Amino acid sequence: MDLAMSVRDREKFLAGTHVAVLGVTDPRGRSAPLLVPVWYGYEPGGLLTVEIGRDTVKARLIRAAGRFSLCAQDESAPYRYVSAEGPVVSVEDPVPAEFRAWLAHRYLDEETASAYLAANRNQLTDDVAVRMRPRRWRTADFSAFAEEFDGRD
């Protein structure tokens, strides 16, 4: 059974609202790759964008590697995920205020997003927007697999 998503389905899924896990190589040799949860933005066929602190470990590792990966998933059955990896194509420093506001409203309701933006307005001077062009994809959609084992006749 092929669990891979079509290009259209993977892009639609990735454009959905998911907390994703960002992964980047850690060449310091003391640990496995760095993996951290992040908010992100993506439009089908476009660049994948994350907002991160300019001076964080993840920012330093992404600058050194020149690339990163990101995995978004459904956390309830039937499980699905999309993983994208590719090169960094731009860094906006500081993060554009419009992108930051869009991202907050993507993940939070109106009232909470407004409060979050007001309480964290100083992040506009501390954060950058890192844009990556997905080159390698990994996907799985377990919907069809789950249907075979749902116990219904």
TrEMBL record:
Keywords: Oxidoreductase. It comes from the Bacteria. PANTHER family: HEME OXYGENASE HI_0854-RELATED. This is Pyridoxamine 5'-phosphate oxidase family protein. It comes from Amycolatopsis samaneae.
